[in-house]
């Protein structure tokens, strides 16, 4: 009896181990598991009969049969995992999607390149502590000219070809020729220290060509405090230009003339394209420098006109063209492109 | 303003290349627009005559030219097309120098060429614009050295001057500025006075100080107004002036030489023996040298004899008294006119001359004498004749403003450390009237520098002459500077947020000029009376300041449709203008225009729908959803440029701030647009109240109990607006529902429509039971029945 039982256990182990190994489908594996370990399974039946054995044999066969049950159960689980993984992999491998087909398109819009250029500049200046200030586009003679020390009947006033308003009640309105009038409006309202920027549209009666537009944008900057010198202007503009063009940016001052600053300077920025190393550079024409803005120390008459004592306070002012910067950095050669609003251009930004 | 290098050297010894000089000028703030080389920079080029022109045996486009030269016949190969037998031409023989190049022996297509026939370009004669071979005077002797026909090699600098520096408008002036910069002596002109005999005309200055503060005059009798000598003609030619006759040329020469404009009158045309500098009579007629007759007004300064005006002072000479080659007797004027008076006349009459440009900027009142002396000397040398005494009427002597300052003040303005000695040297070179003896320095600018009135002006001069390249970056310690916060203007942050939202919704930002034409106004039905009009528009398309951004956007739509773009979503943010009680008023407006298909997310094969009103309404909701004081209402009276039935007002706090809808088909026709265009426009006024950094909106709590969903279909009258359904439901207590279907047609009674709504029903306190949910929907249904006679479908 015991020998027979032993043979039986050995046979069950051998048969099922082999069959598990050979099974290729989950269904067959399940049937096999029922046949071995189900309620009426071969091993289950065998275990049921153990209770009829003599105590001595029970002690021997009990542990043997249980060990076999555990071993087969583990083998079934392993095989099941193996078959499931294979099934998933097969499913994945069957997938055939052309990943190179065109995507869903999100029709995006965009801000205008001039808005983007202006934002770049105002963001940097805001971080340097300049506060945004505004003024009217239709300005009066006083704020656009007189208060800025631009005398009547002087060629300095004629340099800025002005659009005049025809039908207002008083004959004193013009389209502002620069953003500098905002300086005056700010200084009339506020005592120093003042640190402001005034971006916005300005108007000049220029014939339209590749570099002239009757409407264009400027950013005005003004800083009034005690002891502000031309050297401070140079430092602050250098920092600003580094913000725009990177750490290597450098500025150069050249003497110039604006009625509302004294001394006045033109500010050149080192050519960011060739750094002055290419005699054939199309951007700076080999000079190594690119004219960027006008600036200077606020004229004492301008301070006086706003009730600020030039013996106590001093300050600097600068004004730069947004189009000029945008043309320079975006390689746009014709200023008219900004006002044509061709979507094929606009969608590039 | 042109400067000839050799002429400049009359006044200062310079040893700089043209490029080096340009750099020095730039350092002074004088931009050089162009550098042009002139004169004959060649050797060994002689006149020759074309005797015979044959075809080159081996090349169709070349000729074989036989020339008569001083050394006999020579043959050269030439490719020019303007060769004519008998012409005198410049021949460069082998060994000749053209600029830096020496002509080498050449064999061209198998034929030896014994030289080269030259064009103006090949000879480096930049001023001669003749193309092809340079043809010379037919009477020129064969063998003449061509370089003798042209001046020595020279350089012309074209300068761009700022309007504050009239003193730089001459060779003397530029040399003066360089002498301070380079610390070199200025070779001031030493002019021998010509002794005069007898009196000249009587000079009266009734116009006063604001007309003519100084007038000098002198008569020259029996002059010989011959052709000017070559040196004079050459210098004027370099200035771009055609030489005329000696007298005219001399006045021009003095202007370019020392900067003072002179005027010469034909003495025999002047009547009554007097010169009056007076204001014109209103309506007085005057015919200028330009042959144009003008009617003058009482603000025009004129030079008159006893009877009539003979010149527009400082601007333009008169025709009858102008200098002609046969002129025998001359009256010469050297005056100083009040700059604003000249500027006014020049602008009003639209005449800008070399003289007016100098007088309106400010000539040198004490330079009148030098100019008179220089001209007198040249006239007597070239034209002979007998000069009268000089009459000089100068009632109030010019006194320069004295500037009292310290070198420390100069350095403080600049943030520089210019050494005291250097400052002293600069100011000494600038003015004879400079005294640095005491603690305070005293400076009086010379009469040609009226722009130097206070220490800031002197600081600029110090920086210019010392050199701005020495300016280091400032070291001011801002640690004690007051920090202050100021909010951005509302228009900035609000505008930025709306623009970014629109860009995110698929719109492209446009920027248009602020101008419209009368045609635009008429098309849109805007009343001209209320528009801001420009007095001097650039052209007829740019006359009015726009009261709406939509006309510009329609033009943008039309433009882009022409570029084959059909689906367009454009917007602009900017100001609109109008007159309010006669004064210009501006407001910030945001506008959009759409056409074509909606920018729905699309796969390559998926269909897109055309833009419609509800799409536009969705844009508005996305843009303005965050503002709880905004609502839309069908327009009772749509603007004339909108579809009368498809337009809704945008209401902010009860006030209409704009509208959205379909544009009127009649407008589109006027703008050549063949598709529907949808548009919106509103001012941001009122919106900005909510857009404030200091206003914080508290967040609402969200419920923790699950919501149930119920759909309800009811049949209502076909004319009932959805808005009525909405308000009925809200009144009944439903706050979370959506329209999921709308049906009209088959299986429904005539004139009825079916509305299907989906409700989300929940409670903040508990999970609702079926019974409670049914009670909710029953209540809703009852309300719909009561208010809208609805029936459950």
What are the defining features of this structure?
heterodimer; A: 349 residues; BirA Bifunctional Protein, domain 2; 2 domains; seven-stranded mixed beta sheet; two-stranded antiparallel ribbon; 13 helices; 9 strands; B: 793 residues; alpha+beta; OB fold (Dihydrolipoamide Acetyltransferase, E2P); Phenylalanyl-tRNA Synthetase, Chain B, domain 3; 18 helices; elongated
Please summarize what this structure is.
Chain A has 349 residues and is α+β, with helices and mostly antiparallel strands.
What does this structure look like?
The complex is a heterodimer of chains A (349) and B (793). The radius of gyration of chain A is 43 Å and the shape is rod-shaped. Chain A has 13 helices and nine strands. By secondary structure, chain A is an alpha+beta fold. In chain A, the strands form two sheets. A seven-stranded mixed sheet of chain A has the order 1-4-5-9-8-7-6, with helices on both faces. The mean pLDDT of chain A is 91. Chain A has two domains: 2-94; 113-346, 2-Layer Sandwich (BirA Bifunctional Protein, domain 2). Chain B has a seven-stranded mixed sheet. The longest helix of chain B has 19 residues, at 770-788. The termini of chain B are far apart. The model of chain B has no long low-confidence stretch (mean pLDDT 92). At the A-B interface, helix 5, strand 1, helix 7, helix 9 and strand 6 of A face helix 6, helix 7, helix 9, helix 11 and helix 12 of B.
């Amino acid at each position: 009896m015991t020998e027979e039982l032993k043979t039986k256990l050995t046979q069950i182990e051998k048969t099922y181990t082999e069959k598990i190994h050979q099974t290729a489908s989950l269904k067959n594996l399940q049937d096999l598991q029922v046949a071995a370990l189900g309620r009426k399974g071969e091993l289950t039946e065998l275990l049921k009969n153990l209770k009829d054995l003599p105590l001595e044999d029970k002690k021997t066969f009990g542990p043997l049969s249980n060990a076999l049950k555990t071993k087969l159960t583990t083998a079934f689980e392993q095989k099941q995992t193996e078959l499931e993984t294979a099934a998933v992999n097969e499913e994945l491998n069957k997938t055939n999607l052309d990943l190179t087909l065109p995507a869903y398109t999100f029709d995006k819009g965009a801000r205008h390149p001039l808005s983007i250029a202006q934002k770049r500049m105002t963001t940097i200046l805001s971080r340097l502590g300049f506060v945004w200030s505004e003024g009217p586009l239709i300005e009066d003679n006083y704020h656009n000219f007189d208060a800025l020390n631009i005398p009547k009947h002087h060629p300095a006033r004629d340099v800025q070809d002005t659009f005049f308003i025809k039908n207002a009640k008083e004959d004193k309105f013009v389209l502002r020729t620069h953003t500098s009038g905002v300086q005056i409006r700010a200084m009339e309202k506020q005592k120093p220290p003042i640190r402001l920027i005034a971006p916005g549209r300005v108007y000049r009666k220029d014939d339209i060509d590749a570099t002239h537009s009757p409407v264009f944008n400027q950013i005005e900057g003004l800083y009034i405090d005690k002891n502000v010198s031309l050297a401070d202007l140079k430092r602050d503009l250098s920092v600003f230009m580094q913000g725009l063009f990177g750490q290597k940016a450098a500025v150069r001052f050249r003497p110039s003339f604006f009625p509302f600053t004294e001394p006045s300077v033109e500010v050149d920025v080192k050519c960011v394209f060739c750094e002055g190393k290419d005699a054939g550079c199309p951007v700076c024409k080999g000079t190594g420098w690119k004219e960027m803005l006008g600036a200077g120390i606020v004229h004492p008459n301008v301070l006086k006109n706003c009730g600020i004592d030039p013996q106590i306070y001093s300050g600097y002012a600068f004004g730069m063209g947004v189009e000029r910067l945008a043309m320079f950095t975006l390689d746009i050669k014709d200023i008219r492109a900004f006002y044509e609003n061709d979507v094929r251009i606009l969608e590039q930004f | 303003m042109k400067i000839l290098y050799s002429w400049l050297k009359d006044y200062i010894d310079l040893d700089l290349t043209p490029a080096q000089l340009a750099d020095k000028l730039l350092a002074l703030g004088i931009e050089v627009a162009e550098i042009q080389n002139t004169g004959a920079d060649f050797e060994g080029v002689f006149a020759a005559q074309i005797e015979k022109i044959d075809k080159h045996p081996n090349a169709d486009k070349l000729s074989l030219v036989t020339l008569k030269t001083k050394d006999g016949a020579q043959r050269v190969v030439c490719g020019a097309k303007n060769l004519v037998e008998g012409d005198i031409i410049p021949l460069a023989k082998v060994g000749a120098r053209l600029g830096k190049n020496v002509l080498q022996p050449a064999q061209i297509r198998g034929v030896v060429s014994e030289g080269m026939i030259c064009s103006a370009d090949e000879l480096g004669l930049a001023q001669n614009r003749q193309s092809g071979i340079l043809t010379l005077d037919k009477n020129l002797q064969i063998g003449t050295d061509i370089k003798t026909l042209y001046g020595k090699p020279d350089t012309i600098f074209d300068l761009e001057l700022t309007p504050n520096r009239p003193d730089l408008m001459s060779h003397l002036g530029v040399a003066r500025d360089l002498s301070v910069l380079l610390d070199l002596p200025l070779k001031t002109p030493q002019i021998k006075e010509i002794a005069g005999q007898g009196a000249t005309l009587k000079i009266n200055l009734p116009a006063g100080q604001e007309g003519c503060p100084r007038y000098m005059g002198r008569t020259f009798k029996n002059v010989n107004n011959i052709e000017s000598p070559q040196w004079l003609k050459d210098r004027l030619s370099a200035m771009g002036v055609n030489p005329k006759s000696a007298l005219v040329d001399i006045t021009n020469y003095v202007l370019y030489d020392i900067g003072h404009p002179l005027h010469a009158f034909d003495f025999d045309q002047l009547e009554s023996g007097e010169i009056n500098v007076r204001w014109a009579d209103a309506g007085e007629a005057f015919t200028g040298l330009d042959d144009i007759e003008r009617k003058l007004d009482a603000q025009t300064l004129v030079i008159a004899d006893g009877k009539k005006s003979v010149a527009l002072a400082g601007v333009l000479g008169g025709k009858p008294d102008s200098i002609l080659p046969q002129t025998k007797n001359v009256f010469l004027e050297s005056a100083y006119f009040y700059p604003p008076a000249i500027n006014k006349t020049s602008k009003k009459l639209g005449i800008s001359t070399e003289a007016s440009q100098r007088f309106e900027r400010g000539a040198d009142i004490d330079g009148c004498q030098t100019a008179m002396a220089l001209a007198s000397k040249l006239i007597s040398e070239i034209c002979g004749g007998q000069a009268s005494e000089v009459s000089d009427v100068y009632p109030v002597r010019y006194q320069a403003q004295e500037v009292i300052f310290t070198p420390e003040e100069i350095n403080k303005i600049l943030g520089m450390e210019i050494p005291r000695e250097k400052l002293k040297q600069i100011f000494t070179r600038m003015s004879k009237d400079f005294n640095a003896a005491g603690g305070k320095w005293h400076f009086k600018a010379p009469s040609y520098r009226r722009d130097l009135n206070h220490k800031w002006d002197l600081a600029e001069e110090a920086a210019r002459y010392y050199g701005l390249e020495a300016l280091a970056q400032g070291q001011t310690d801002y640690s004690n500077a007051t920090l202050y916060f100021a909010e951005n203007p509302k228009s900035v942050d609000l505008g930025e947020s709306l623009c970014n939202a629109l860009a995110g919704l698929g719109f492209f930002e446009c920027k248009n000029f602020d101008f419209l034409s009368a045609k635009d106004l008429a098309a849109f039905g805007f009343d001209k009376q209320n528009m801001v009009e420009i007095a001097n528009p650039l052209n007829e398309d740019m006359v009015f300041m726009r009261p709406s951004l939509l006309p510009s956007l329609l033009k943008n739509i039309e433009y882009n449709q022409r570029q084959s773009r059909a689906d367009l979503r454009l917007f602009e943010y900017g100001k609109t203008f109008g007159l309010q009680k006669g004064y210009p008023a501006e407001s910030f407006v945001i506008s959009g225009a759409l056409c074509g298909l909606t920018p729905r997310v699309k796969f390559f094969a998926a269909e897109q729908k055309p833009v419609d009103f509800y799409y536009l309404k969705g844009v508005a909701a996305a843009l303005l959803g965050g503002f709880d004081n905004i609502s839309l209402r069908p327009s009772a009276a749509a603007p004339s440029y909108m579809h009368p039935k498809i337009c809704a007002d945008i209401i902010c706090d009860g006030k209409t701030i704009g509208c959205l809808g379909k544009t009127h088909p009649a407008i589109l026709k006027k703008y050549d647009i063949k598709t529907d265009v949808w548009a919106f426009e509103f001012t941001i006024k009122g919106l900005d109240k909510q857009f404030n950094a200091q206003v914080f909106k508290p967040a609402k709590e969200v419920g923790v109990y699950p919501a149930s969903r119920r759909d309800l279909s009811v049949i209502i009258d076909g004319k009932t607006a959805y808005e009525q359904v909405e308000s009925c439901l809200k009144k009944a207590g439903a706050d979370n529902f959506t329209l999921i279907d709308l049906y009209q047609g088959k299986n429904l009674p005539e004139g009825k429509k079916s509305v299907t709504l989906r409700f989300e029903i929940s409670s903040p306190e508990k999970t609702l039971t079926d019974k409670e949910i049914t009670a909710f929907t029953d209540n809703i249904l009852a309300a719909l029945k009561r208010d809208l006679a609805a029936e459950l479908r």
